Structures are given as structure tokens and as C-alpha cells.
Amino acid sequence: MKIIHRVSLSVSFNEKQAFGALGIQLDEGFSSFDIEESDPRWPQVAELIEGFQAVDIATTKFSAKEIRHAKRLQVAADNHQGYPEPSDDFGYLNVTYDCSNHCPECGCGLVQKAPFRIKLRPKHGRRHIFGLNWVFDELFVSAEAWKQVFKPHGLQKRPVLDAKPGRELQRFVQLSIPQTDLGFDLTDYPSETCPHCGRTKWEPVSRGFFPKLKGDCDLPLFKAAPYFGSGASAHHALIMSPALYRAAQYAKLRGLSVMVLDGD
Ligand SMILES: [Zn+2]
Questions:
Q1: How far is the CA of 140 from the centre of ligand 1 (A)?
Q2: Amino acid 165: pLDDT
Q3: CA of 198 relative to ligand 1 center, distance in Å
Q4: 201 shares a domain with 90
């Protein structure tokens, strides 16, 4: 497993000098670079990140061997193409979801009631799997990928509509991902409880192993019960069987990021 930090900051003379002294050459203006946590310079870089209040986003890259031996994998779209429509004033919420149990403060409680609507972009055409901004627990796949990989594993599809006039798209479908009540061992993971609705949400996990699943499930792809997210955003984690992940890899489907679960 490699933990990689993407560091982004506004660089002026002081930042340029400080990072330059560690052999990290930055141009003045907005700049970003990647560094592995195993890099001997990491402790000093971490101090500079804190001192200069740089943005630090950690991701974890697992080896092929770690993925091969995992019993379950947490997956997510590694690219987000466009927004659920209508995106103005978050109009998609009432169009796409039953909001009767939704808390606008923490984002928990949305239940999908209708197809997503999207504005097709040229980039969509080059993707087998993509997500939408603001929607982190759904996967959209090409119709071909669904037929070739997901359908044989028993996954149902939902239609996706174009934003206007709301016609069904032929090239893409949404995977219908079952919701379960399975939880994770989230002891020691940071969480917050919403003062408005009282529900608890955990900070998104991107560094190290994903939390261990409590219980088992034979579904090839499902949503676990806990909510993750920050601010008014909440999503469920998606858990995939290694068999389905291997099938997606074998078919050379691009667009998934993957984490190995703790204890697997
Ligand atoms: Zn709430």
C-alpha cells in the first residue's frame, strides 16, 4: 500500500524557498505536487503543509497482490462528470429523490425515486464508468459495460435521462445498487452527529485500509449502512466483490478507484 499526498497551495517567495530546500521545485502562483508518505522528506513536508496551510489530500494505492487477496473491496468512481440536473438551486433533489426523510443540514436520508438527469459531455463518451459531482454513492456505466460485466453478475440497471427534454439515454445506465444495513467497525474513526436530525456521519476515509465490514453479504455490489461525508454532503460506501472487480478489470473497464478493507 502506498499513501500518496496531493499537496496544493498558493506559492510566493517563502513557499518556493522552503519547499525548494527539500528539493521540491514549485512555480510561483497556484501549484500542486504529489509526495508519498514513505518519502524520507515527508515529515518535513508535513510540517510545511501545516505551516503554510496547504491543502493536503491523501489517497491510498493498493498493490495488485493486496487487491487480489481481498475478500471485499470498497469502490468509487474515480472521475465525476457533470452534475445531476437540474443543478441550479439543487433542483435535482426533489426531481430525483424522495426527500421526506432528508436532512438539509447533514445531507442524510435521500431515497432515489426517479432516474437521474444529466447533460451529456464529450468526456462521457470516453468513460466506461463515471460518477456525478455531489452524488458519491452511485455509479453510471456504459450500456455495453453493463451488458458485458455487471448484468452477468446479477446487477440491475436504471435508466438515465438527458437533462432536457428528459429522453432516456441509450449509451449509459445507472447501476441499481442495493442498500443494506451492514455496518463497519468505525471505532476510532472521526464522526459528527447532526444537531438538526441526530444522525451520525463519519469523515470520508481515503488513507490506509477502509474500515472492516461487520457481517457478511453475498451481493456483488451493495451500499453499506453508515453515512460518510462532510457539511451538507452524505453518502454510503459501495462494497464490491473481488469477482466482480476482476471481471471489470478483465474487460478493461476504466473509472473505478478501489480500497482494501481492514482485516481482509
Ligand atoms: Zn442531519
A1: 27
A2: 86
A3: 6
A4: yes
Rg (CA), the chain: 20
Distance 192 CA to ligand 1 centre (A): 10
The reported pLDDT for the residue numbered 264 is 67
Distance 173 CA to ligand 1 centre (A): 30
How remote is the CA of residue 191 from the centroid of ligand 1, in Å?
Answer: 13
Tell how far the Cα of 217 is from the centroid of ligand 1, in angstroms. Answer: 28
Ligand 1 centroid from CA 7, angstroms = 31
Residue 243: give the domain boundaries.
Answer: 65-264
The count of structural domains within the chain is: 2
Contact predicate 80/257, CB 8 Å: no
Gap from CA of 187 to ligand 1 centroid (Å): 21
Final residue in a domain of this structure, among 12, 43, 61 = 61
Q: List per-block mean pLDDT (blocks of 10 residues) for the chain, which spans 264 residues.
A: 96 96 95 96 97 95 93 94 94 97 97 96 79 97 96 97 92 96 95 97 94 93 97 97 95 94 83
What is the predicted pLDDT for the residue at 121?
A: 80
34 and 100 in one domain? no
Co-location of 79 and 140 in the same domain: yes
